[in-house]
Amino acid sequence: QVQLVESGGGMVQTGDSLRLSCAASGRSFTSYTMGWFRQAPGKEREFVAAIVWGDGSTAYSPSLKGRFTISRDDAKSTMYLQMNSLKPEDTAVYYCAARRGLPRPSLSEYENWGQGTQVTVSS
Questions:
Q1: For the chain, which end, N or C, has fewer CB atoms within 10 Å of the first or last residue's CB respectively?
Q2: Residue 82, exposed/middle/buried by CB under 10 A (0-12, 13-18, 19+)?
Q3: pLDDT of 1 over the 90 cut
Q4: How far apart are CA 23 and CA 25, in angstroms?
């Protein structure tokens, strides 16, 4: 059974950086894509970025590419999301998710989810 545990959230100020982690366990993830999604208050959950565990190829939401960087450490079974130049509109609960196969932006195509970690950016 796949288990995903996010960490690294917190309260920061505009312009700060933050790195989120997602520790994965339960199986080999070589054939998996791992993704980050976020959900702001009153809004739908949206795709942020994804990484193919096996070869490290990545996909990003066009609006976030350039400020956010997704990566993974295979030895630690951990995925990361480096967030730079944070803005108040980045305030959300950030979730990691996993699916078999290639990256997809639709949350319905991800089979496993973590509990989320809160990121709050103050102006």
A1: N
A2: middle
A3: no
A4: 7
